[in-house]
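Predict structure. Chain length: 87.
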Amino acid sequence: MKSRIHPVSRPVVFRDRAAGTAFLTRSTADSDRRTTWEDGRSYPVIDVETSSASHPFYTGTQQVLDTAGRIERFNRRYGGETSSQGA
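Prediction complete.
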């Protein structure tokens, strides 16, 4: 592996503003703003709009689309059966 071509990985706090949660992980991202973590050390903090704490898929609030109804409506509108062409 070549030296000096990979970015520096460091501990960073990602803070989800929507859920009010934060987690410490390693990242190559950096920030001028800093926060003090539970261990008493100061880390760069990056605010994110969504994370697993606030995303509908992970929280179980995701709405399921009625794909069967959408297919039936498409078939009614555009003629139903599709024909396969070719051999």
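Summary: The longest strand covers residues 10-16.
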